[in-house]
């Protein structure tokens, strides 16, 4: 029994998933990519570019789910505003891609993006400067979400805003950004956002090879982030984080500055979200304020809940399954998919508080106990 | 106008005082200065929750290495006092010094804990989702800033330390059990163990034997008495038997201030104590 | 309207014979005329008669004037509870035989309507009802052509009613002021009298006069304008304040239910918005059931909505929330799922299109305090209503046994249980109450905004902001927060624009919560932790 | 063990995706890309039904090229990136021959790159801001010069309006339209101080202060009108506020570009009688085609109260033209159909003939209607003859030199007549 109990304490078991996960993830992606590039379109095993981009999108969501899980599942901070960090990362990438269009926009203006031309703006707003440099844009993609997360977290955690209040505040944060980015004066293309991208680092975004490359990069980065996060969370810092989740005051009384731990974890998570956003945009081909909408942020939480929070693998699986289900539902029964989605949320929270991984754990537990019993009998 | 000038002058003087260096230049004194045997100074402490005076001009001095028992009826301010000492709640007025050089009132829980003040709560609070071992590992006396924690590894000495703590609290064979799965008494022990692992100068222990069996209680008594000497221990307890068994000095709190102080016998013979605290017991005896 | 047409019909009975004969040819022309050619004809008609043509003009103005295809005879169409019937506009005598097939509408457009309104006003100058006369005069201020002025000058001496006389005086003063051939002194005198009127037309006249070639006139009118401007500004401020209060009342209604479910029970009810939506749809259904009694429909809708949303609330509590006790963050997820389901439900039942909820006559229009300040009735009522609901709720919580139980459970569930409070029952009731009030809010909102599946989404975030800002578990806090935010938004809007105002308010709340993590009115003592 | 479950989890999801779509060559596939859930469902479900009705209708007539038509409906759920994804799904998995879809500009912009990459064909049935012309899209809704400009002309000439309030929701359509109108009005000699521009967020519901501002602005002597590009949901509270603050159509007429019969069916129009809307179609227009269409629609939806509106007519015309073009080209091949489309003629439901021009925009009549108390419009003014849709506005500095011409030799959506260049084509 003791062995079992020990076995299921988080932070130890989830470590066991790392290797198989990485292997499968990279295996599947490489196979899929190869199938897309080297097989003829009529072959039975051919993977259409549609599927590739779809999978690419899912992986971005998986990364995002990871980010949410790290702070919610491990540190008990329920952020309803992670969509904001995701979108900010996305916008950074979007601005870069926008600048790459150069004079190939419909108005042929070498400097200004089309939406600025027909709202007849005269020169580029300052925050668009430098965005034509890939490295700079990518720096922004992680820096902007990171800094925002730091400022917000620093304020919130130091003044000990916790639980529901924090969740609502994060929601307010993303909602405010949503409204802000809708404004055309902001210079982010308003409701239309940024779209009609042409190429990235000189590679044509519409070429299959580019898509596959993006897809692979996403997969690899996901694997890397997964491993790193796993390492962090199974270090002593990971234990402190769990401690904070389970009893923050206790952790303070044994001498941990919990607010600092929370801030840095929040920043880390936000940065991951930013990266996910940056990878997401070139693959779906558009970024617009819709990504900031609070509903999206709630959905992310749901992915994690479904997969099983407190286990990284759970977050990833949750994201993949829910989004896959969504795609299928919208195709099969468009009118009813909200029912299904809604029902899923309710049932999971009611009957699978630890998500699918939790269920899997219970089943395993049962089997083992059964096994343990039999010899005695 | 001139007044202003004077003020300005005053403040500058204040700022350039000869007899002391600027606070930001002063060296960080990690060592607790226990020059005259005193480790804790609590002076005219006041605190009120909307109207109700939880602490009322409370004065308390604890010698280095002594074992002190705090008793008092519910609402006498025992727990509140501990809250103030450990930085959980801010007091309205008064001073709390740890040694002669650490003003606890301008520090937060974490800092206070790092100074070497350990606290055990009324109802045991341990990290239920983690193993007994992890619980102890977390409470070890180490550098507790973020990055060091991230890269820290368990050193053999630390492991040994954890092991003998495990022995002292008799949970050696449960080391890989989830803390949540322990019995109530065992949790109490684990929490004490967590204090030990941090080897503090001062332990504040709130009702250690609540919900313990007789022999568990006994062992707790032994443990606490053994601790005293190298460490300072303050125990809050309702169980008079237990108090009598460990106490050297007892302080009686009543309505937020010290009512009496002395050995158990002195206390029991003390008039007003009998009135306010043992009052009903005495009455009970008479009736019996 | 129909009714008053008939009234005038009655008035005109004695002189009727004469009139209609002289009018008939004109009416015939009217029927044949193209819309652009109608004004002169109407002019003739007006000249050729007196008050008796009012019903004709009124019916035409409302677009209720038809003519019988066969006989070219004009008739008015009246809706008397439900069924339409056609009457002679003068005699009010009905033509039961006529159906939609037999008649054709006489079209009107904006220009025509504008003309008719003035014509009616001119005629009404001689009306028997003083208030009618007054409004007639005010109506005419904008179009002071010579013959109007003549009429006024004729009537002015004989006018007995004080207010009407004042209005006429104003009109004449405007006339004198604008007459360049008159002596400057008279004109200035006139201008000075104008200074204490707030009528737009007066202000416009003065603005034109303020660059009159005569410097004296310029001076006078500038001075007059200033005095007017000062008063106008004061009223403008009141106006804005009212807007703020009104927005606040909406926020209050939307969030007060949440203040209970969230504040008292600690349940983050993401489906709260949908409770509001259900209330709005209930209003719609009620109006479907009683189409001829729209004016009373609201009074039926309020309890109905309370029941519908309340029961739904109880249902949700029993089925879902009960099982998530003490896991507030998970209630959030579950209720979010529920909100999705409810939305899709109404989409499938009522279609995704917005539903028409008509405003009772007594709620539409506005209360004209003076030409620059008028408060819209529906918002006034909603403001009052919001406060009533609030008070009622406070009473329920403070005075009733339910309230006692609720407070007991919210402060110490186990103790309450031990004391024999049926916590399950209390939870259900509390949640029902909160949801029911959300439903009532829905009734109010259905009068302001569109009733569609997304109605709830629009308010959920604001509601949470209000509750958190006010301090969870504190109704007074919610009240203060709602009005603070409402007024703040409305005073920001003119300078920043609607969008930026919203953003600034949000940012403010975020920062405020950093300062006061427990909101405006936090719960104190150990119980709060 | 663990590995197995994991594999199954991922592979399973992968596999079902990879499973090849059945290529049924027997039918001609018509993709429908309209949101059935989310905020835009309100407007778009109607258009979905319209397309389905047209497909039924066509099949009753024996389909096209001897094949039946098969409608394939997906739900982009008012989520803009999803439009691109679903568009790709329709084109690559379902291999549809044509797509009818999109309502908002952003959804069109989102799916556009996909259409151009995979050389699909889409019909876009909603009035929009112009400033676009893609080889793969046919725009059957009104361009600004087919709606806004005639409306303003009507206001100035027939109603003698001298001051204008340009009120809109803050997104690209109102922004562009108002830019165009501003330029146009100034060109017509309207002073800057007589133009008031105001933007509000989506679904704005508290119109008190804005309406009262309009009231003030209108009370300064000169005849004033509001030109409203307020988007769907926000309209109802806006009109309710107008009614309550007693702004009647005679004092300050409001002419709207996105308020049709459908929007009005959501509110009580008694207080709004006389306010205006500019469209290419009104349900109230009495022509045999229109009556037939309305009859068919009510029959199809089994709801005698259902109303028709302009985007429906646009869909109708688009579908008819596509059908003709396919028969004419004898194939559904996109390039062939695209060329065959140009010059297609179809009778409007409001009389007259709609023509598809070289710039993929239609020539249509422009009608202005007054709101009636029965939720319908009554036509008070219409252009004599049809107006040719203009892809690139002549009143925007950026686009005045651009033209669109998809016939040889130019074959360009944004041909700059000054520099004689065609920039940024994706093919």
Automatic annotation (TrEMBL), chain A:
The keyword Cytoplasm does not apply. It is a multi-pass membrane protein. One of its GO terms (cellular component) is plasma membrane. Its main location: membrane. Keywords: Cell membrane, Membrane, Transmembrane, Transmembrane helix. It comes from the Bacteria. It is found in: Cell inner membrane. The chain crosses the membrane at residues 21-39, 45-64, 71-93, 134-157, 164-182, 212-229, 261-281, 301-324, 336-353. One of its GO terms (molecular function) is branched-chain amino acid transmembrane transporter activity. This is Amino acid ABC transporter permease. It comes from Marinomonas profundimaris.
From TrEMBL, chain B:
SMART domains: AAA (SM00382). It comes from the Bacteria. Residues 40-280 form the ABC transporter domain. CDD domains: ABC_Mj1267_LivG_branched. InterPro entries: AAA+_ATPase, ABC_AA/LPS_Transport, ABC_transporter-like_ATP-bd, ABC_transptr_urea_ATP-bd_UrtD, BCA_ABC_TP_C, P-loop_NTPase. GO terms for cellular component: plasma membrane. Transmembrane segments: none annotated. Keywords: ATP-binding, Nucleotide-binding, Transport. One of its GO terms (molecular function) is ATP binding. This is Urea ABC transporter ATP-binding protein. It comes from Marinomonas profundimaris.
TrEMBL record, chain C:
The keyword Transmembrane helix applies. GO terms for cellular component: plasma membrane. The keyword Zinc-finger does not apply. The chain crosses the membrane at residues 241-268, 275-294, 300-320, 332-350, 380-397, 464-488, 494-513. GO terms for biological process: amino acid transport. Residues 1-17 form the signal peptide. It is found in: Cell inner membrane. Pfam families: BPD_transp_2. It is a multi-pass membrane protein. Its main location: membrane. GO terms for molecular function: transmembrane transporter activity. Keywords: Amino-acid transport, Cell membrane, Membrane, Signal, Transmembrane, Transmembrane helix, Transport. It comes from the Bacteria. Belongs to the binding-protein-dependent transport system permease family. LivHM subfamily. This is Urea ABC transporter permease. The lineage of its organism: Bacteria, Pseudomonadati, Pseudomonadota, Gammaproteobacteria, Oceanospirillales.
UniProtKB/TrEMBL annotation, chain D:
It holds the Pfam family Peripla_BP_5. The keyword rRNA-binding does not apply. Coiled coil: none annotated. SUPFAM superfamilies: Periplasmic binding protein-like I. This is Branched-chain amino acid ABC transporter substrate-binding protein. Residues 1-24 form the signal peptide. Keywords: Signal. It comes from Marinomonas profundimaris. InterPro entries: ABC_urea-bd_UrtA (IPR017777), Peripla_BP_I (IPR028082).
């Amino acid at each position: 029994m003791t062995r079992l109990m020990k076995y299921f304490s988080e932070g130890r078991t989830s470590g066991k998933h790392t290797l198989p996960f990485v292997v499968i993830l990279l295996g599947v992606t490489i196979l899929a990519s190869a199938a897309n590039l080297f097989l003829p379109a009529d072959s039975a095993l051919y993977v259409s570019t549609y599927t590739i981009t779809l999978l690419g999108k899912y992986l971005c969501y998986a990364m995002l789910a990871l980010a949410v899980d790290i702070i919610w599942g491990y540190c008990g901070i329920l952020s309803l505003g992670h969509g904001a960090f995701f979108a900010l990362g996305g916008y950074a990438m979007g601005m870069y891609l926008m600048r790459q269009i150069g004079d190939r926009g419909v108005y042929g203006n070498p400097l200004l993006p089309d939406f600025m031309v027909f709202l007849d703006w005269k020169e580029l707003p300052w925050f668009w400067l430098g965005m034509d440099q890939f490295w700079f844009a990518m720096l922004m993609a992680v820096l902007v979400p990171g800094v925002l997360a730091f400022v917000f977290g620093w304020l919130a955690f130091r003044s000990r805003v916790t639980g529901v209040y924090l969740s609502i505040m994060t929601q307010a944060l993303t909602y405010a950004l949503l409204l802000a980015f809708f404004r055309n004066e902001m210079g982010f293309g308003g409701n239309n956002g940024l779209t009609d991208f042409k190429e990235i680092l000189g590679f044509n975004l519409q070429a299959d090879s580019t898509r596959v490359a993006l897809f692979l990069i996403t997969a690899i980065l996901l694997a890397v982030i997964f491993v790193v996060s796993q390492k962090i969370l199974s270090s002593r810092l990971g234990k402190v984080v769990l401690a904070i989740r389970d009893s923050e005051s206790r952790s303070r009384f044994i001498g941990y500055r919990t607010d600092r731990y929370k801030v840095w974890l929040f920043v880390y998570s936000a940065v991951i979200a930013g990266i996910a956003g940056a990878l997401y945009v070139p693959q779906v081909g558009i970024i617009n304020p819709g990504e900031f909408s609070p509903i999206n942020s709630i959905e992310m939480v749901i992915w994690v809940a479904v997969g099983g929070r407190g286990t990284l693998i759970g977050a990833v699986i949750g994201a993949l399954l829910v989004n896959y289900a969504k795609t299928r539902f919208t195709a099969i029964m468009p009118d009813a998919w909200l029912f299904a989605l809604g029902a899923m949320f309710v049932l999971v929270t009611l009957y699978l508080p630890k998500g699918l991984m939790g269920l899997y754990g219970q089943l395993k537990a049962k089997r083992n106990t059964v096994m343990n019993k039999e010899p005695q009998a | 106008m001139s007044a202003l000038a004077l003020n300005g002058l005053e403040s500058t003087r204040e700022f350039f005082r000869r007899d002391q260096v600027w606070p930001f230049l002063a060296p960080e004194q990690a060592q607790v200065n226990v020059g005259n045997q005193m480790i804790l100074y609590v002076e005219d402490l006041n605190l009120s929750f909307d109207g109700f005076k939880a602490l009322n001009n409370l004065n308390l001095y604890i010698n280095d290495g002594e074992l002190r028992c705090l008793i008092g009826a519910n609402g006498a301010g025992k727990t509140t006092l501990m809250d103030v000492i450990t930085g959980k709640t801010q007091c309205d007025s008064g001073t709390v010094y740890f040694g002669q050089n650490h003003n606890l009132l301008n520090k937060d829980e974490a800092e206070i804990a790092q100074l070497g003040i350990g606290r055990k709560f009324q109802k045991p609070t341990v990290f239920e989702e983690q193993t007994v071992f992890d619980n102890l590992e977390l409470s070890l006396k180490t550098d507790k800033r973020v990055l060091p924690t991230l890269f820290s590894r368990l050193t053999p000495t630390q492991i040994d330390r954890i092991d003998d703590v495990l022995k002292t609290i008799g949970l050696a064979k449960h080391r890989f059990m989830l803390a949540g799965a322990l019995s109530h008494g065992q949790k109490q022990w684990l929490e004490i163990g967590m204090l030990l692992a941090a080897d503090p100068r001062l332990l504040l222990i709130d009702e250690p034997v609540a919900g313990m069996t007789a022999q568990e209680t006994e062992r707790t008594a032994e443990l606490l008495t053994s601790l005293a000497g190298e460490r300072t221990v303050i125990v809050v307890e309702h169980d008079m038997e237990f108090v009598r068994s460990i106490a050297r000095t007892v302080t009686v709190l009543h309505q937020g201030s010290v009512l009496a102080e002395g050995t158990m016998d002195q206390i029991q013979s003390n008039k007003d104590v009998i009135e306010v605290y043992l009052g009903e017991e005495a009455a009970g005896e008479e009736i019996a | 309207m129909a009714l008053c047409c008939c009234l005038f019909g009655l008035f005109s009975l004695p002189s009727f014979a004469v009139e209609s004969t002289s009018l008939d040819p004109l009416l015939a022309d009217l029927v044949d005329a193209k819309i652009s050619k109608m004004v002169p004809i109407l002019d003739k008609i007006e000249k050729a008669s007196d008050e008796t043509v009012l019903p004709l003009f009124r019916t035409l103005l409302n677009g209720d004037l038809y003519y019988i295809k066969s006989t070219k005879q004009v008739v008015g169409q009246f809706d008397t509870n439900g069924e339409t019937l056609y009457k002679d506009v003068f005699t009010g005598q009905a033509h039961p035989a006529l159906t939609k097939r037999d008649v054709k509408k006489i079209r009107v457009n904006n220009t025509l309507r504008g003309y008719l309104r003035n014509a009616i006003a001119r005629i009404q100058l001689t009306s028997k009802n003083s208030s009618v006369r007054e409004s007639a005069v005010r109506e005419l201020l904008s179009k002071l052509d010579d013959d109007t002025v003549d009429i006024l000058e004729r009537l002015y001496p004989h006018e007995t009613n004080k207010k009407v006389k004042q209005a006429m005086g104003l009109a004449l003063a405007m006339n004198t002021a604008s007459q360049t051939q008159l002596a400057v002194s008279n004109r200035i005198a006139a201008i000075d009298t104008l200074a204490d009127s707030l009528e737009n037309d007066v202000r416009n006249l003065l603005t034109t006069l303020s660059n009159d070639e005569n410097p004296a006139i310029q001076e006078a009118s500038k001075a007059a304008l200033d005095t007017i401007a000062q008063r106008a500004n004061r009223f403008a401020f009141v106006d804005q304040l009212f807007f703020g209060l009104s927005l606040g009342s909406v926020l209050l209604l939307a969030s007060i239910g949440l203040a209970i479910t969230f504040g008292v029970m600690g349940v983050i009810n993401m489906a709260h918005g949908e409770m509001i939506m259900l209330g709005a749809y209930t209003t719609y259904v009620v109006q479907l059931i009683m189409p001829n009694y729209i004016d009373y429909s609201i009074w039926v809708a309020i309890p109905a909505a309370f029941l519908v949303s309340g029961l739904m609330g109880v249902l949700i509590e029993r089925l879902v929330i009960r099982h998530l006790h003490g896991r507030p963050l998970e209630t959030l997820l579950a209720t979010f799922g529920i909100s999705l389901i409810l939305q899709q439900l109404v989409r499938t039942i009522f279609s995704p299109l917005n539903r028409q909820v008509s405003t009772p006559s007594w709620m539409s229009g506005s209360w004209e305090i003076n030409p620059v300040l008028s408060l819209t009735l529906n918002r006034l009522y909603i403001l009052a209503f919001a406060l009533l609901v609030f008070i009622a709720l406070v009473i329920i919580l403070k005075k009733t046994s339910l309230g006692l139980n609720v407070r007991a459970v919210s402060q110490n569930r186990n103790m309450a249980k031990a004391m024999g409070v049926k916590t399950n029952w209390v939870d259900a009731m509390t949640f029902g109450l909160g949801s029911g009030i959300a439903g009532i809010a829905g009734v109010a909102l259905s009068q302001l905004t569109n009733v569609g599946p997304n109605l709830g989404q629009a308010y959920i975030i604001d509601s949470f902001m209000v509750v958190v800002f006010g301090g969870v578990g504190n109704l007074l806090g919610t009240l203060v927060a709602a009005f603070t935010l409402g007024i703040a938004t409305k005073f920001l809007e003119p300078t920043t624009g609607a969008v930026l105002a919203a953003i600034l308010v949000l940012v403010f709340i975020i920062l405020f919560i950093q300062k006061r993590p427990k909101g405006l009115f936090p719960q104190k003592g150990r119980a709060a932790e | 063990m663990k590995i197995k479950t994991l594999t199954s989890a991922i592979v399973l999801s992968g596999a079902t995706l990879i499973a090849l779509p059945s290529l049924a060559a027997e039918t001609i596939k018509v993709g429908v890309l309209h949101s059935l859930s989310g905020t835009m469902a309100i407007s778009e479900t109607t258009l979905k039904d319209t397309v389905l009705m047209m497909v039924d209708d066509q099949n009753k007539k024996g389909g096209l090229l001897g094949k039946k038509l098969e409608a394939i409906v997906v739900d982009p759920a008012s989520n803009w990136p999803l439009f691109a994804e679903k568009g790709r799904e329709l084109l690559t998995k379902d291999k549809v021959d044509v797509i009818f879809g999109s309502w908002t500009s952003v959804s069109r912009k989102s799916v556009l790159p996909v259409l151009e990459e995979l050389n699909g064909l889409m019909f876009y049935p909603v009035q929009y801001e112009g400033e676009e012309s893609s080889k793969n899209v046919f725009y059957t809704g009104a361009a600004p010069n087919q709606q806004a400009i005639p409306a303003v002309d009507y206001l100035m000439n027939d109603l003698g309006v001298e001051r204008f309030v340009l009120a809109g929701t803050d997104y690209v359509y109102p922004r562009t339209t108002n830019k165009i109108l501003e330029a146009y009005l100034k060109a017509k000699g309207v002073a800057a101080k007589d133009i008031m521009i105001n933007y509000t967020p989506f679904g704005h519901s508290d119109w008190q202060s804005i309406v009262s501002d309009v009231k003030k602005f209108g009370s300064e002597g000169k005849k004033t009108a509001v030109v409203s590009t307020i988007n769907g949901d926000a309209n109802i509270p806006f009109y309710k506020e107008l009614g309550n603050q007693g702004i009647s159509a005679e004092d300050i007429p409001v002419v709207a570009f996105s308020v049709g019969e459908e929007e009005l069916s959501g509110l009580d129009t008694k207080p709004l009688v006389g306010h205006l809307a500019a469209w290419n179609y009104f349900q109230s227009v009495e022509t045999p085609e229109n009556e037939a269409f309305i009859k068919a629609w009510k029959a199809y939806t089994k709801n005698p109260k259902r109303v028709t509106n302009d985007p429906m007519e646009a869909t109708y015309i688009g579908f008819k033209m596509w059908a003709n073009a396919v028969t004419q080209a004898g194939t559904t091949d996109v390039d062939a159909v695209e060329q065959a489309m140009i010059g297609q003629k179809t009778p409007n439901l409001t009389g007259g003939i709609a023509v598809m021009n070289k710039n993929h925009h239609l020539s249509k009549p422009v009608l202005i209607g007054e709101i009636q108390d029965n939720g319908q419009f009554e036509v008070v003014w219409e252009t004599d003859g049809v107006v040719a849709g203009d892809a690139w506005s002549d009143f925007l500095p950026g686009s005045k030199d651009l033209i669109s011409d998809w016939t040889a030799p130019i074959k360009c959506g944004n041909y700059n007549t000054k520099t004689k260049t065609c920039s940024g084509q994706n093919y």
